Inverse folding.
């Protein structure tokens, strides 16, 4: 049931999206990547110092790979937000559970194991719910950004696989998130100076949203890392779609964005897929425990 941490992660990611929406008009892509991660460096860095924890690791290259995949995926997503309709960009970003289902199934078949078709079906139903809720569309001239946007999902899936691998090696969640935050901070800062040349001045009115991006991002990363590292990967993939549900509710409450009938139907599919995946995983776990007695 560690996969249920993804529900908390999805809520925090939805809050991060709200804060990003509030800041997007004033700051560029790399600046938002920087502010998304620098809070984690400061917060986790202070916590590490106060608790006398060690940041040294034997798996530095694994951290670099995880951080590169995840940060590159985030940058592509933020970039597509400015070029594609919101629903299209979000849908492309949430193709990662589909790639994850393919990767996990391939690994299981390579080991001679039978893929869990029920969980794979739940992931597909959840993605159909995302498509129905967001109603993606691609206009003339947007084909290239859309193709590039698809790589965001692939890179995210590779990052999640790296998280699973490092967790099995004994790397704690906080260390994985700390290295990721350090990498993202440097990436955002360097990228902004290369592409723009200087940072946008931060006004007092910008501070709450930027702090919101950073705080919600680090909490989401910790919950997500715990879910991918300790939980069932296909169940976690299905629960990842719940971010769309939280985003729709927050959009209604904060921005007074209505929830059309199609969106409500998509949300219903996402909820059904998540509940079904959870029930199937719990039942499989119960059978496994009974077989061992």
């Amino acid at each position: 049931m560690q996969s249920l941490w993804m529900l908390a992660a999805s809520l925090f990611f939805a809050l991060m999206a709200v804060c990003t929406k509030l800041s997007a008009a004033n700051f560029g892509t790399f600046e938002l990547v920087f502010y998304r991660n620098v809070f984690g460096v400061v917060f986790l860095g202070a916590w590490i110092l106060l608790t006398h924890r060690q940041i040294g690791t034997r798996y530095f290259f694994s951290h670099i790979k995880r951080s590169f995949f995840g940060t590159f995926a985030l940058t592509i997503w933020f970039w597509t937000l400015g070029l594609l309709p919101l629903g299209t960009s979000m849908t492309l970003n949430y193709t990662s559970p589909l790639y994850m289902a393919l990767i996990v199934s391939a690994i299981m078949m390579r080991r001679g194991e039978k893929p869990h078709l029920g969980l794979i079906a739940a992931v597909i139903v959840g993605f159909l719910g995302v498509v129905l809720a967001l109603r993606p569309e691609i206009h003339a001239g947007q084909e290239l950004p859309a193709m590039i946007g698809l790589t965001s999902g692939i890179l995210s899936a590779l990052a999640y696989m790296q998280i699973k691998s490092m967790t099995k090696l004994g790397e704690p969640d906080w260390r994985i998130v700390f290295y990721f935050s350090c990498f993202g901070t440097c990436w955002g800062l360097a990228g902004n100076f290369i592409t723009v040349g200087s940072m946008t001045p931060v006004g007092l009115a910008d501070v709450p949203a930027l702090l919101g991006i950073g705080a919600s991002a680090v909490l989401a990363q910790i919950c997500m890392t715990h879910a991918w590292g300790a939980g069932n990967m296909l169940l976690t993939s299905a629960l990842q779609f719940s971010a769309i549900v939280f985003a729709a509710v927050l959009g209604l409450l904060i921005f007074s964005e209505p929830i059309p009938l199609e969106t409500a139907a998509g949300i219903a599919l996402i909820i059904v897929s998540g509940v079904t995946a959870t029930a199937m995983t719990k039942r499989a776990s119960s059978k496994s425990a009974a077989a061992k007695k």
In short: The chain has a mean pLDDT of 85.
